[in-house]
Amino acid sequence: MDLGIKGKIALITGSDSGIGKATAKQLLSEGAVVILTDKQEDQLKKVAEELKHLGTVYAYPADITEVDSIKALHDYTKETVGEIDILVQNAGTSGVQGMFHEIDDAGWVETIEVDLLGPVRVTREFLPDLRNGGWGRIVYLASENAVQPYKDELPYDSAKAGVLSFAKGLSRSYAKEGLLVNVVSPAFIETPMTDEMMEKRSEKMGVSFDEAVETFLDEERPHLELKRRGKAEEVAAVISFLCSDRASFVNGSNYRVDAGSVATIN
Protein backbone atom coordinates (compact mmCIF):
# COMPACT_ATOMS: atom_id res chain seq x y z
CA MET A 1 0.00 0.00 0.00
CA ASP A 2 1.34 3.41 -0.97
CA LEU A 3 1.08 5.58 2.15
CA GLY A 4 1.52 8.80 0.20
CA ILE A 5 4.43 10.12 2.28
CA LYS A 6 7.28 10.04 -0.20
CA GLY A 7 9.51 13.04 0.50
CA LYS A 8 7.79 13.86 3.81
CA ILE A 9 10.18 14.63 6.66
CA ALA A 10 9.64 12.55 9.80
CA LEU A 11 11.21 12.98 13.24
CA ILE A 12 11.13 9.89 15.46
CA THR A 13 12.15 10.22 19.10
CA GLY A 14 13.41 7.18 20.99
CA SER A 15 14.50 5.64 17.71
CA ASP A 16 17.74 3.85 18.52
CA SER A 17 15.91 0.56 19.17
CA GLY A 18 12.53 -1.12 19.51
CA ILE A 19 9.37 0.51 18.22
CA GLY A 20 11.12 3.72 17.16
CA LYS A 21 13.68 1.88 15.05
CA ALA A 22 11.00 -0.35 13.50
CA THR A 23 8.94 2.72 12.62
CA ALA A 24 11.96 4.35 11.01
CA LYS A 25 12.42 1.29 8.81
CA GLN A 26 8.82 1.38 7.63
CA LEU A 27 8.71 5.12 6.97
CA LEU A 28 11.99 4.95 5.07
CA SER A 29 10.61 2.12 2.95
CA GLU A 30 7.70 4.43 2.05
CA GLY A 31 10.08 7.14 0.84
CA ALA A 32 10.00 9.44 3.84
CA VAL A 33 13.11 11.29 5.01
CA VAL A 34 13.75 10.25 8.61
CA ILE A 35 15.54 11.97 11.47
CA LEU A 36 16.42 9.61 14.31
CA THR A 37 16.90 10.95 17.80
CA ASP A 38 17.67 9.41 21.17
CA LYS A 39 20.05 10.06 24.07
CA GLN A 40 22.84 7.62 23.17
CA GLU A 41 24.79 9.14 20.27
CA ASP A 42 26.89 6.06 19.49
CA GLN A 43 23.91 3.73 19.29
CA LEU A 44 21.99 6.31 17.25
CA LYS A 45 24.76 6.57 14.67
CA LYS A 46 24.95 2.78 14.50
CA VAL A 47 21.24 2.54 13.71
CA ALA A 48 21.46 5.32 11.09
CA GLU A 49 24.30 3.45 9.40
CA GLU A 50 22.25 0.24 9.49
CA LEU A 51 19.21 1.89 7.90
CA LYS A 52 20.84 4.15 5.31
CA HIS A 53 20.37 1.60 2.52
CA LEU A 54 16.60 2.08 2.89
CA GLY A 55 16.61 5.82 2.16
CA THR A 56 17.59 9.21 3.48
CA VAL A 57 18.21 9.05 7.21
CA TYR A 58 19.84 11.44 9.68
CA ALA A 59 20.68 11.11 13.36
CA TYR A 60 21.04 13.68 16.11
CA PRO A 61 21.15 13.00 19.87
CA ALA A 62 18.71 14.76 22.16
CA ASP A 63 17.17 14.43 25.61
CA ILE A 64 13.42 15.11 25.64
CA THR A 65 13.57 16.25 29.27
CA GLU A 66 15.83 19.20 28.40
CA VAL A 67 14.44 22.21 26.53
CA ASP A 68 17.85 23.30 25.22
CA SER A 69 18.54 19.83 23.89
CA ILE A 70 15.23 19.75 22.01
CA LYS A 71 15.90 23.21 20.59
CA ALA A 72 19.32 22.08 19.37
CA LEU A 73 17.64 19.12 17.68
CA HIS A 74 15.18 21.47 15.99
CA ASP A 75 17.96 23.76 14.81
CA TYR A 76 19.85 20.79 13.37
CA THR A 77 16.72 19.53 11.61
CA LYS A 78 15.91 22.89 10.02
CA GLU A 79 19.48 23.42 8.87
CA THR A 80 19.88 19.88 7.52
CA VAL A 81 16.54 18.92 5.97
CA GLY A 82 14.03 21.69 6.69
CA GLU A 83 10.74 21.69 8.59
CA ILE A 84 9.28 18.36 9.63
CA ASP A 85 5.91 17.02 8.44
CA ILE A 86 5.63 14.07 10.81
CA LEU A 87 6.42 13.70 14.51
CA VAL A 88 6.45 10.27 16.14
CA GLN A 89 6.91 10.87 19.86
CA ASN A 90 8.07 7.45 21.01
CA ALA A 91 10.75 8.21 23.61
CA GLY A 92 9.76 7.15 27.10
CA THR A 93 10.61 5.20 30.23
CA SER A 94 8.91 2.55 32.33
CA GLY A 95 9.65 4.78 35.28
CA VAL A 96 9.77 3.87 38.93
CA GLN A 97 7.84 0.76 39.95
CA GLY A 98 6.41 -0.40 43.24
CA MET A 99 3.32 -0.06 45.37
CA PHE A 100 2.00 3.46 45.86
CA HIS A 101 3.21 3.73 49.47
CA GLU A 102 6.75 2.83 48.35
CA ILE A 103 7.15 5.62 45.75
CA ASP A 104 8.26 9.10 46.77
CA ASP A 105 7.91 12.43 44.96
CA ALA A 106 11.20 11.95 43.14
CA GLY A 107 9.94 8.75 41.54
CA TRP A 108 6.77 10.41 40.35
CA VAL A 109 8.58 13.48 39.02
CA GLU A 110 11.19 11.41 37.18
CA THR A 111 8.54 9.38 35.35
CA ILE A 112 6.29 12.32 34.49
CA GLU A 113 9.26 14.39 33.29
CA VAL A 114 9.96 11.82 30.58
CA ASP A 115 6.58 10.29 29.76
CA LEU A 116 4.31 13.35 29.90
CA LEU A 117 6.35 16.54 29.91
CA GLY A 118 8.74 15.08 27.31
CA PRO A 119 5.98 14.84 24.67
CA VAL A 120 4.73 18.30 25.67
CA ARG A 121 8.18 19.86 25.23
CA VAL A 122 8.92 18.14 21.91
CA THR A 123 5.52 19.13 20.54
CA ARG A 124 5.87 22.75 21.64
CA GLU A 125 9.23 23.05 19.91
CA PHE A 126 8.21 21.45 16.60
CA LEU A 127 4.60 22.63 16.40
CA PRO A 128 5.39 25.63 14.14
CA ASP A 129 6.83 23.23 11.54
CA LEU A 130 3.82 20.95 11.71
CA ARG A 131 1.33 23.79 11.34
CA ASN A 132 3.14 25.46 8.48
CA GLY A 133 2.62 23.20 5.49
CA GLY A 134 -1.11 22.53 5.55
CA TRP A 135 -0.38 18.84 6.15
CA GLY A 136 1.04 17.28 9.29
CA ARG A 137 0.90 14.22 11.50
CA ILE A 138 1.68 13.63 15.16
CA VAL A 139 1.62 10.14 16.64
CA TYR A 140 2.21 9.69 20.36
CA LEU A 141 3.08 6.39 21.99
CA ALA A 142 1.03 5.73 25.10
CA SER A 143 0.31 2.29 26.58
CA GLU A 144 -2.40 -0.11 27.64
CA ASN A 145 -1.63 1.29 31.12
CA ALA A 146 -3.28 4.57 30.17
CA VAL A 147 -6.74 3.00 30.33
CA GLN A 148 -6.00 -0.12 32.40
CA PRO A 149 -3.70 0.98 35.23
CA TYR A 150 -1.60 -1.52 37.16
CA LYS A 151 -1.09 -1.16 40.90
CA ASP A 152 2.72 -1.32 40.80
CA GLU A 153 3.15 1.16 37.91
CA LEU A 154 1.02 4.12 38.97
CA PRO A 155 3.43 6.90 37.89
CA TYR A 156 3.72 5.34 34.41
CA ASP A 157 -0.05 4.69 34.27
CA SER A 158 -0.79 8.30 35.16
CA ALA A 159 1.73 9.79 32.74
CA LYS A 160 0.42 7.72 29.83
CA ALA A 161 -3.18 8.63 30.70
CA GLY A 162 -2.00 12.23 30.54
CA VAL A 163 -0.62 11.62 27.05
CA LEU A 164 -4.06 10.42 25.90
CA SER A 165 -5.74 13.53 27.26
CA PHE A 166 -3.04 15.82 25.86
CA ALA A 167 -3.28 14.24 22.41
CA LYS A 168 -7.08 14.40 22.36
CA GLY A 169 -7.06 18.07 23.27
CA LEU A 170 -4.34 18.83 20.75
CA SER A 171 -6.27 16.99 18.03
CA ARG A 172 -9.08 19.52 18.39
CA SER A 173 -6.74 22.49 18.14
CA TYR A 174 -5.15 22.30 14.69
CA ALA A 175 -7.06 19.78 12.56
CA LYS A 176 -8.50 22.54 10.37
CA GLU A 177 -4.93 23.45 9.49
CA GLY A 178 -4.28 19.89 8.28
CA LEU A 179 -2.45 18.67 11.40
CA LEU A 180 -3.86 15.34 12.61
CA VAL A 181 -2.98 13.96 16.04
CA ASN A 182 -3.39 10.35 17.17
CA VAL A 183 -2.08 7.86 19.71
CA VAL A 184 -0.89 4.27 19.55
CA SER A 185 -1.06 2.23 22.76
CA PRO A 186 0.96 -0.98 22.69
CA ALA A 187 1.01 -3.75 25.27
CA PHE A 188 4.01 -5.91 26.19
CA ILE A 189 6.12 -5.52 23.06
CA GLU A 190 9.57 -7.03 22.48
CA THR A 191 11.69 -3.97 23.27
CA PRO A 192 14.72 -3.23 25.46
CA MET A 193 12.31 -1.81 28.06
CA THR A 194 10.33 -5.04 28.46
CA ASP A 195 13.53 -7.06 28.18
CA GLU A 196 14.78 -5.23 31.26
CA MET A 197 11.49 -5.82 33.06
CA MET A 198 11.62 -9.54 32.33
CA GLU A 199 15.29 -9.82 33.29
CA LYS A 200 14.47 -8.31 36.69
CA ARG A 201 11.50 -10.66 37.05
CA SER A 202 13.65 -13.63 36.06
CA GLU A 203 16.27 -12.77 38.68
CA LYS A 204 13.70 -12.08 41.38
CA MET A 205 11.83 -15.35 40.79
CA GLY A 206 14.90 -17.48 40.09
CA VAL A 207 13.54 -18.65 36.74
CA SER A 208 14.63 -18.38 33.10
CA PHE A 209 13.84 -15.36 30.96
CA ASP A 210 11.26 -17.32 28.96
CA GLU A 211 9.61 -18.56 32.15
CA ALA A 212 9.49 -14.99 33.43
CA VAL A 213 7.65 -13.94 30.26
CA GLU A 214 5.26 -16.90 30.47
CA THR A 215 4.37 -16.33 34.11
CA PHE A 216 4.01 -12.57 33.54
CA LEU A 217 1.48 -13.23 30.79
CA ASP A 218 -0.46 -15.69 32.94
CA GLU A 219 -0.42 -13.64 36.13
CA GLU A 220 -0.29 -10.01 35.01
CA ARG A 221 -1.74 -9.92 31.47
CA PRO A 222 -4.46 -12.62 31.40
CA HIS A 223 -6.44 -10.88 28.65
CA LEU A 224 -3.53 -10.72 26.20
CA GLU A 225 -5.07 -13.51 24.16
CA LEU A 226 -2.16 -14.29 21.83
CA LYS A 227 0.00 -15.24 24.84
CA ARG A 228 3.20 -13.72 23.52
CA ARG A 229 5.02 -10.42 23.44
CA GLY A 230 4.17 -8.29 20.42
CA LYS A 231 6.77 -7.39 17.84
CA ALA A 232 8.00 -3.84 17.31
CA GLU A 233 7.13 -4.17 13.61
CA GLU A 234 3.50 -4.87 14.50
CA VAL A 235 3.27 -1.57 16.35
CA ALA A 236 5.22 0.28 13.67
CA ALA A 237 2.71 -0.79 11.04
CA VAL A 238 -0.08 1.06 12.86
CA ILE A 239 2.10 4.09 13.52
CA SER A 240 3.08 4.25 9.85
CA PHE A 241 -0.55 4.17 8.77
CA LEU A 242 -1.40 7.06 11.11
CA CYS A 243 1.56 9.02 9.69
CA SER A 244 0.22 8.58 6.18
CA ASP A 245 -2.11 10.17 3.69
CA ARG A 246 -4.30 7.07 4.06
CA ALA A 247 -5.23 8.25 7.57
CA SER A 248 -6.63 11.55 6.31
CA PHE A 249 -9.90 11.17 8.27
CA VAL A 250 -8.37 9.82 11.49
CA ASN A 251 -7.91 12.37 14.26
CA GLY A 252 -7.95 12.22 18.06
CA SER A 253 -7.98 8.43 18.12
CA ASN A 254 -6.21 5.90 20.31
CA TYR A 255 -5.21 2.72 18.47
CA ARG A 256 -4.51 -0.15 20.85
CA VAL A 257 -1.99 -2.73 19.64
CA ASP A 258 -2.37 -5.07 22.58
CA ALA A 259 -3.72 -8.51 21.49
CA GLY A 260 -6.75 -7.86 23.69
CA SER A 261 -4.77 -7.05 26.84
CA VAL A 262 -7.14 -4.21 27.76
CA ALA A 263 -10.16 -6.02 29.16
CA THR A 264 -12.84 -3.50 28.20
CA ILE A 265 -14.17 -2.27 24.86
CA ASN A 266 -13.61 1.43 25.66
What is the secondary structure topology, with strand pairs?
Layout: E1 9-13, H1 18-29, E2 33-37, H2 41-51, E3 57-59, H3 67-80, E4 86-89, H4 105-115, H5 117-132, E5 136-141, H6 154-171, E6 179-186, H7 192-205, H8 209-220, H9 232-242, E7 254-257
Domains (count): 2
Average of the residue pLDDT scores = 95
CATH topology name of the largest domain: Rossmann fold
Q: Give the CA-CA distance, first to last residue.
A: 29 Å
- Name the poorly predicted regions: none
| Global structural class | alpha/beta
Rg from C-alpha positions? 18 Å
Largest sheet: 7 strands, parallel
Number of beta strands = 7
- CATH class label of the largest domain: Alpha Beta
Give the number of helices.
Answer: 9
Strand content: 5-15%
| Order of H and E elements | EHEHEHEHHEHEHHHE
CATH architectural label of the largest domain: 3-Layer(aba) Sandwich
Helix content: 40-55%
Morphology: globular
What's the CATH H-level superfamily name of the largest domain?
Answer: NAD(P)-binding Rossmann-like Domain
Arrangement of strands in the largest sheet: 3-2-1-4-5-6-7
Written overview of the protein:
- The protein has helices at 18-29, 41-51, 67-80, 105-115, 117-132, 154-171, 192-205, 209-220, 232-242; strands spanning 9-13, 33-37, 57-59, 86-89, 136-141, 179-186, 254-257.
- The chain is of the alpha/beta class and 266 residues long.
- It has two domains: 9-188 and 231-255, NAD(P)-binding Rossmann-like Domain (Rossmann fold, 3-Layer(aba) Sandwich), CATH 3.40.50.720; 191-229.
- Helix 3 runs parallel beside helix 5 (117-132), helix 4 (105-115) packs parallel to helix 6 (154-171) and helix 7 (192-205) crosses helix 8 (209-220).
- It is globular and about 50 Å long.
- The mean pLDDT is 95.
